[in-house]
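Changelog-linked ticket: FE2/S2 (inorganic) cluster example.
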Amino acid sequence: MSEILLQIDGREVKASEGMTVLDAAQSVGISIPTLCHHEKLDPYGACRICTVEVETGGRTNLVAACIFPVAQDLVVRTRSEQIDQTRKTLLELMLAHAPDAPALLELAQEYGADKDRFEKEPSFCILCGLCVRYCAEVKKANAIGFVDRGPNREINFMPEIASKECWNCKECFPLCPTSYVQAAYHLTEALAFPPPASKPASEE
Ligand code: FES
């Protein structure tokens, strides 16, 4: 595999083809915040909190580090006024949906985000897709999925599948940055799980 040299925050970093800027940064201990990234899952690029600046051919662009591929001589900056401002605004938007999520509040403190800047629309989900993708890609269960589109998009457990697959799994719970997936599961369990099959009269 051919070696690629790039520069991140002024440091020369060795990477290989197929790596993303996030992989390369993490390989030398440079931290970039992430909310929708998981090492076991395909790159997704939904939350954009990993936004960094890349310089190629004399132009500077903001890109999502978790999906942007490394390239020879790429120059990357992981902090700047523009990056911090972008992350701050993204956090303020996400906090309108999940105002009490510890992962968001921690980042909000770092980037000076105001959790009350935007009108609250508490859906408690930031649509990072970690639960949906983990269930599909790692567990191959598809017990949870996205439903609806645009502003109505949300996650939903499929009761028929979840009632069989989730009770001894729940591996998506700790992945959720807002803890909404736990609430969604328990609500589905209470409202929509199929009733237990009644025993045949002979076994009663
Ligand atoms: Fe890169 Fe979410 S972590 S877009």
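Closing comment: Example verified and attached. The mean pLDDT is 94. The longest strand covers residues 3-8.
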